[in-house]
Design goal:
With about 900 residues, this protein is α+β, with helices and mostly antiparallel strands. Helix content is about 65%, strand content about 15%. It is built from 13 helices and 21 strands. The strands form 5 sheets. Strands 4-7-2-1-21-18-13-16-15 form a 9-stranded mixed sheet, covered by helices on one side. It has a 5-stranded antiparallel sheet with strand order 9-8-10-17-14, with no helix packed on it. Strands 3-6-5 form a 3-stranded antiparallel sheet, with no helix packed on it. β5 and β6 form a beta hairpin. α5 packs antiparallel against α12. About 5% of the residues have low confidence.
């Protein structure tokens, strides 16, 4: 870090030396003479007291000698850049084995330095030790005193005197900007790199004593500095190392030795006096000529200004034209672009018109088909309305038949119950008869009583058989009625199902016609819309109003038919923003004739009701086969029972006849045994028949009960169907009215679309002519754009020329002003030069000439003596007589830092 600071300080001092020292040609050393360049590094404390000295020598082997002889009093010599060796000679010199290379070596010495520095520190006007200054703040002054201890004996004006070797000493230090502010120097300069200041001071110790300028009155005011002072405002004082360079060769570089003796100087001063007089005379003549030039410059400048003004006006006019050319070309560009857009738009318009007229024709066909469908729908709804009476009558017949069916099944159930009770009584009576007959046959003695009992039993049996036969007749009659009712019910249910299916289809067709896809043709250009917008508004307003009113009536009627309450119906219509047909008839190039269905909630409800009726009919039809089968089974059982009853009745009659015959026969008792056997067989047959009848009683009762339950459920469904049919009738009436209104709207729409397509041919012809005209217009626009571009190029070149002309005249005018200013200055300068030359001659040259005989000779002698002393000091540690050399001292002082706590 310390070495970097030294390098930075050396750079700063080099910059300052380039300002302080004059630049003169360097004298070339002998071409092959070896040279010794020496740097003496001195380490010192913060006050400048020497602590260590290290001497670094560079032997420049210009002649590439194999050996170089040097004189040096150094100890601890070390080759620092190579491995070359040396030998010490008896005369105190050393010889280096160079092999033609330069030698870099260093060593130490205890020899006293020829120069030294002393640093003194002050805080707020009072001297302070360096160690106590660290960390302090205030006004700080640092004084650096240079001391020269090297003297030579020289002859000056015939006397022997001691002359100081002329050393120039320069000290540099780095001052951080955040610590040092308001830095000022005596005998120095301050350089800044932004974050730090580099302070460089200089002095020439002993030179004033050698020259003795204070002994001459004319030169006693000249001060040669031998110290440096630095002042600054400091915060928390700290200071890095300082570096001081001391070097000789100053007067040698000035080449004062080239001046001859004082006689030669006197001769040159005489020449200077003559030349001064000539200069005085010439300066006067120059002043007069320049005055004439200055007066003529006014006319010249005026002419240049006029030319510049004219060029400016010309340039302004051309610039205006050039600046406006963009607008011209832009307008032409926009015009051609518009023409191109017009042509493109005309082409698109032609295509759009063609598409529009084609779409209008398709629209007309679509509307014709829609009108046809509406007409067919209306016809179907009328048919539905006409046949609704049949539907209602069928439902009424179905309702009546259902009631009769339920009543008949109840009667059947009662008859079957009576029949089964009769068969049970019959079976019981026959059993008793059989038992009594057996007993009678075992007790012949009791035959009369038995015959009486048998006769009475036979009478009861005949009576039971009659009752059974009567019950069977009733059951058979009830079964017949139920069969008729089931047949009628089946026919009525089929009729209702067919009519409800037709109603669902018709209403579905209505909904489909109302929700037909929107007809929308949008291929015509907006330019055609504006011309016929007024016609559109009028036609659309009338068509939409009428269609919306008709459709609203249809939907409201459908909602009424579905049994929707009035409050809910109005809420639906309000939430949907109106239910209707929107018929937009456009006679423009952008045609849009949408037919929107709006809301079909009411019609959907009607369809849902019809579908429920149809589902009920399907359920009825589904139950009828079961009832029909149960009835057939019951009929078969009744037939079987009828046959059994007939057999029972016949057996009872036979038994009665047998008992009567037996009673008659008993009188003579002739055929008793034979008749008894026949009678017993007949009773057994009768018992077998009654048993067979009784075994089917439970099954017959269960079948009749199931038929009765089915008939009751069927009758309940039919009654609900009858109630829905009434509501359906009202909905069909409203649907028929809406269909008529829709048919009228479709016919009006047909008229509107025919008017829309009437001008298709004219519209196509106009669009074609527009497209052809726009193409011709675009050709002219392109030619105009080409000419405009050529005009723009010419204006640009003209503007460039005008700008160049104006620039030239402006420069001429400015040059004229500068010329005038120059001539004025020349005039003033020539006047001052004339006056100055007169004063210089009187007060300078003449005084120098007068002084020559007294003081200049002595000064020149001293300067020569100082120069000799300067030339003789080549090295600090010694030097061989055959070697040139130069030396500089670098004294580094310790920094001052606050101790860390």
């Amino acid at each position: 870090m310390k070495r970097k600071n030294v390098q930075a300080l050396l750079v700063g001092m080099t910059m300052l030396m380039s300002v302080v020292l004059p630049v003169t040609p360097a004298l070339a050393a002998a071409e092959n003479l070896a040279e010794k360049e020496q740097t003496v590094y001195v380490n010192a404390d913060e006050n400048g007291n020497t602590e260590e000295v290290i001497v670094s020598n560079w032997l420049k082997n210009k002649g590439k000698e194999k050996n170089l002889k040097d004189k040096s009093g150094l100890t601890d010599i070390e080759n620092v850049k190579g491995d070359e060796t040396f030998q010490k000679n008896e005369d105190g010199t050393i010889t280096w084995n160079t092999d033609g290379e330069d030698i870099y070596y260093q060593g130490t010495t205890g020899k006293e330095l020829p120069v030294s520095v002393r640093l003194t520190y002050y805080l707020d006007g009072r001297e302070i030790p360096a160690s106590e200054l660290a960390g302090k703040s205030g006004k700080v002054k640092i004084r650096i005193d240079y001391e020269n201890k090297e003297k030579k004996t020289e002859k000056v004006n015939g006397k022997t005197e001691e002359i100081y070797t002329p050393f120039m000493m320069m000290t540099a230090m780095i001052l951080p900007a955040d610590t040092f502010t308001n830095v000022e120097m005596v005998n120095g300069k301050v350089l800044s790199d932004g974050s730090n200041d580099i302070a460089v001071g200089y002095g020439f110790p002993g030179l004033a004593d050698s020259l003795k300028l204070s002994d001459m009155e004319e030169l006693d005011e000249i001060e040669i500095p031998d110290h440096v002072e630095l002042t600054a405002d400091v915060k928390d004082f700290s200071l890095g190392m300082t570096a001081t360079i001391a070097t000789t060769g100053l007067l040698e570089d000035l080449n004062l030795g080239d001046a001859a003796d004082t006689d030669d100087l006197k001769e040159k001063l005489d020449t200077l006096t003559d030349s001064s007089e000539a200069l005085v005379k010439g300066s006067k003549e120059l002043q007069e000529g320049i005055s004439t030039l200055d007066s003529s410059a006014d006319t010249f400048v005026s002419g240049l200004n006029s030319a510049d003004d004219g060029a400016g006006q010309l340039k302004n006019g051309i610039d205006t034209m050039n600046s406006k050319k963009g607008e011209l070309l832009g307008g032409i560009s926009k015009l051609t672009a518009g023409m191109s857009s017009l042509k493109s738009g005309a082409g698109q318009l032609q295509k759009g018109v063609s598409a529009y007229t084609s779409g209008a024709a398709q629209l007309e066909n679509g509307i014709d088909q829609a009108a046809k469908g509406v007409s067919e729908l209306n016809s179907g709804i009328e048919t539905l309305n006409e046949k609704k009476g049949i539907l209602i009558n069928g439902v009424e017949q179905l309702s009546t038949g259902g009631a009769k069916l339920e009543e008949g099944t109840k009667s059947l159930q009662q008859g079957v119950q009576a029949y089964t009770a009769g068969t049970a009584a019959l079976d019981q009576g026959i059993g008793q008869l059989k038992s009594e007959l057996g007993q009678s046959m075992g007790q012949v003695s009791q035959l009369p009583q038995a015959i009486k009992s048998l006769t009475e039993g036979a009478g009861q049996l005949i009576q039971g058989a009659g009752t059974l036969q009567q019950g069977m007749s009733q059951a058979e009659a009830a079964a017949g009625k139920i069969g008729d009712s089931v047949s009628g019910l089946k026919s009525a249910a089929q009729t209702v199902g067919d009519l409800s299916g037709q109603a669902v289809g018709i209403i579905g067709n209505l909904i489909n016609s109302q929700s037909a896809p929107q007809v929308d043709t949008n291929s015509v250009n907006e330019q055609a819309n504006a011309a016929i917008a007024q016609e559109n508004a009028l036609v659309n307003e009338q068509a939409n109003a009428q269609a919306n009113q008709q459709q609203s009536s249809n939907v409201a009627a459908a909602l009424d038919a579905a049994g929707i309450p009035e409050e809910q119906k109005q809420a639906v219509l309000a939430n949907l923003g109106g239910i209707g047909v929107s018929v937009g008839v456009q006679t423009s190039a952008n045609i849009n004739v949408p037919i929107t269905g709006g809301d079909n909630g009411g019609a959907d409800a009607a369809i849902q009701g019809l579908q429920q009726i149809q589902a009920a009919m399907n359920a009825v039809n589904g139950q009828i086969p079961g009832a029909d089968a149960a009835l057939s089974e019951a009929q078969a059982q009744i037939n079987a029972m009828k046959e059994g009853t007939a057999s029972a009745v016949a057996g009872a009659e036979a038994l009665k006849k047998g008992t009567q015959s037996f009673a008659e026969a008993m009188k003579p008792m002739d055929n008793l045994t034979e008749l008894s056997d026949k009678l017993q067989k007949a009773v057994e047959q009768l018992k077998a028949g009654s048993t067979a009848l009784v075994s089917k009683n439970e099954e017959l009762n269960a079948g009749v009960s199931s038929a009765a339950d089915g008939a009751a459920a069927l009758n309940a469904g039919i009654q609900q169907l009858s109630a829905g049919a009434g509501q359906l009738s009202g909905g069909i009436d409203q649907l028929a009215a809406g269909s008529k209104a829709l048919n009228i709207g479709a016919q009006q729409l047909q008229k509107g679309v025919k008017a829309l397509t009437a001008n298709n041919a004219s519209l196509n012809n106009g669009a074609s002519q527009l497209e052809q005209g726009s193409a011709e217009l675009l050709k002219g626009g392109n030619a105009l754009a080409s000419g405009g571009n050529a005009l723009g190029d010419g204006i640009s070149k003209l503007a460039d020329g005008a700008a160049a002309l104006k620039d030239g005249t402006s420069k001429l005018a400015a040059g004229g002003k500068e010329l005038k200013s120059g001539t004025t200055k020349l005039k003033d300068g020539s006047t001052k030069l004339k006056d100055g030359m007169e004063k210089f001659d009187e007060e300078g040259i003449q005084k120098i000439t007068d002084m020559l005989n007294d003081d200049v000779k002595a000064v020149m002698e001293r300067i020569k003596a100082v120069e000799n002393a300067d030339k003789s000091y080549k090295a600090f540690d010694g030097q061989d007589s055959h070697m040139d050399g130069k030396v500089k001292f670098v004294i580094e002082t310790d920094g001052i830092e606050a101790e860390e706590s």
